[in-house]
């Protein structure tokens, strides 16, 4: 079995069905080799009447038609050579001249088999079909049609040559048979009509077979190309699926990181401020310091709660069922109480805002206020949310010390804000100069 598969792997025929069809045609040609040539009956001429007192002339018998002797070993060798050629077809990377020579050799072997077979060689059409099938596998449509035309012309040439030999024999037979002219004309007319119809039918039948072979091989090649394209597309889809899976995992990690940074970072910053205030008033005003410590404890609990939600990849709703305006006002009030920074806000949004838009805006404002508290040394912050042409526009200003946008290492916070806004199709921009504060701008589609 292993030896069979090694031998089968030697073939480079793209369709084993067509290879088996070639073998069937070659088998038919081999069987036709051993079929005796057609024999034309020998008709004796009429004898003249004997009542004239003259001795009858000696009978004139027409010589039998001369059939060239068949060289069967040469026929079988030509057919076998043509069959072996089919095991290794020229590949697409081979030069065109190689494919042309391969096809010409196929026609040459077919013609050589006919030469060895003589006039009775009735297997030429089967050999031509083998050559046409291989030509269809090697050439595009224009080349296939050219190979089919060459095969058809070759078939017609052999057919006409055979018919002319038969007609010549009939004429010789008519001359040897002493018939009246009208009778010979009748015999010749019937024979020529029969030969003409036989030739026409044979030519039409072979033409139809060639057209069928062209369409069959073309359909098989188209189906094979479609399967190859489908396989290639399936392979690409698998690669794209892996890329999408990796990208989705990366986006999910970034999302969780943003959640931890935005929520926990905010609470820890506020807690740090509360502890610093408690340390300042601990010696002089213990009750006031105790209040700061309690606030720090509350903020620590909130941070721990957000950590649990982020680690489990279940993002808690930061709005907690409130509207965007109510959640932002509560956030600004909390930052004002914690840091003492004066807050100014204005909301002009009349339409309903989607949850993803509200969450993104809330997180951006939360991160921006955290940065203001940590770095800006600002005493005033203005937060403005407006509805403009189906977009929710956020503008957040402060009067802090600002920074150089191009020279600043922004860290994860600013990049996280930008990624969050761009992920839902929005536009994000930060404007800042040293000594002139900072401005955060975010425009997000409402739906």
From TrEMBL:
Read off the Gene3D superfamilies from this record: 1.20.5.1930, Histidine kinase-like ATPase, C-terminal domain
- Which residues belong to any copy of the Histidine kinase domain? 361-447
Q: Which domain of life is it from?
A: Bacteria
The subcellular localization recorded is:
Cytoplasm
Does this UniProt record's set of keywords contain Coiled coil?
Answer: no
Cofactor(s) required, per the database record: [4Fe-4S] cluster
Q: Broadest EC class?
A: transferase
Q: Where is this region: Disordered?
A: 42-63
The enzyme's E.C. designation: 2.7.13.3
Q: Which InterPro entries match?
A: HATPase_C_sf (IPR036890), HATPase_dom (IPR003594), His_kinase_dom (IPR005467), Sensor_HK_TwoCompSys (IPR050482), Sig_transdc_His_kin-like_C (IPR004358), Sig_transdc_His_kin_sub3_dim/P (IPR011712)
Which keywords annotate this record?
A: 4Fe-4S, Cytoplasm, Iron, Iron-sulfur, Kinase, Membrane, Metal-binding, Transferase, Transmembrane, Transmembrane helix, Two-component regulatory system
Residues crossing the lipid bilayer are 15-34, 96-117, 123-141, 148-174, 194-221
Q: Which reaction does it catalyse?
A: ATP + protein L-histidine = ADP + protein N-phospho-L-histidine
GO molecular function terms listed in the Swiss-Prot or TrEMBL record: kinase activity
Q: What role does this protein play?
A: Member of the two-component regulatory system NreB/NreC involved in the control of dissimilatory nitrate/nitrite reduction in response to oxygen. NreB functions as a direct oxygen sensor histidine kinase which is autophosphorylated, in the absence of oxygen, probably at the conserved histidine residue, and transfers its phosphate group probably to a conserved aspartate residue of NreC. NreB/NreC activates the expression of the nitrate (narGHJI) and nitrite (nir) reductase operons, as well as the putative nitrate transporter gene narT.
Which named protein is this? Oxygen sensor histidine kinase NreB
């Amino acid at each position: 079995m292993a030896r069979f598969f090694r031998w089968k792997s030697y073939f480079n025929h793209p369709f084993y069905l067509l290879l088996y069809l070639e073998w069937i045609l070659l088998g038919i040609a081999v069987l036709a080799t051993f079929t005796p040539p057609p024999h034309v009956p020998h008709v004796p001429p009429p004898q003249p009447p004997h009542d004239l007192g003259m001795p009858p002339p000696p009978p004139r018998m027409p010589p039998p038609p001369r059939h060239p002797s068949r060289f069967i070993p040469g026929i079988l060798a030509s057919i076998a050579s043509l069959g072996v050629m089919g095991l290794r077809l020229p590949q697409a990377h081979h030069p065109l001249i190689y494919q042309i020579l391969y096809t010409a050799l196929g026609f040459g072997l077919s013609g050589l088999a006919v030469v060895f077979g003589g006039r009775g060689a009735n297997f030429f059409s089967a050999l031509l079909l083998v050559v046409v099938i291989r030509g269809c596998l090697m050439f595009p449509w224009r080349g296939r049609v050219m190979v089919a035309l060459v095969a058809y012309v070759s078939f017609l040439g052999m057919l006409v040559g055979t018919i002319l030999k038969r007609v010549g024999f009939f004429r010789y037979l008519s001359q040897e048979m002493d018939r009246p002219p009208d009778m010979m004309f009748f015999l010749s007319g019937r024979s020529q009509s029969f030969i003409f119809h036989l030739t026409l039918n044979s030519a039409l039948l072979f033409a139809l077979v060639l057209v069928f072979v062209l369409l069959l091989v073309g359909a098989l090649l188209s189906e094979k190309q479609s399967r190859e394209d489908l396989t290639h597309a399936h392979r690409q889809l698998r690669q794209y699926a892996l890329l999408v899976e990796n990208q989705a995992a990366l986006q999910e990690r970034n999302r969780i990181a943003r959640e931890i940074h935005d929520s926990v970072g905010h609470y820890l910053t506020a807690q740090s401020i509360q502890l610093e205030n408690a340390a300042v008033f601990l010696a002089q005003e213990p009750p006031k310091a105790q209040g700061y410590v309690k606030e720090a404890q509350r903020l620590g609990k909130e941070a721990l709660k957000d950590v649990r939600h982020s680690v489990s990849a279940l993002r808690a709703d930061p709005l907690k069922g409130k509207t965007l305006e109510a959640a932002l006002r509560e956030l600004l009030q909390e930052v004002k109480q914690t840091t003492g920074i004066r807050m100014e806000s204005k909301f002009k949004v009349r339409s309903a805002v989607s949850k993803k838009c509200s969450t993104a805006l809330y997180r951006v404002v939360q991160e921006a206020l955290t940065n203001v508290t940590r770095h800006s040394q600002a005493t005033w912050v203005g937060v403005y949310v407006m509805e403009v042409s189906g977009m929710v526009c956020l503008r957040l200003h402060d009067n802090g010390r600002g920074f150089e946008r191009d020279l600043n290492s922004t860290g994860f916070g600013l990049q996280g804000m930008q990624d969050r806004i761009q992920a839902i199709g929005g536009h994000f921009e930060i404007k800042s100069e040293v000594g002139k504060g900072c401005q955060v701008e975010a425009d997000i589609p409402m739906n």
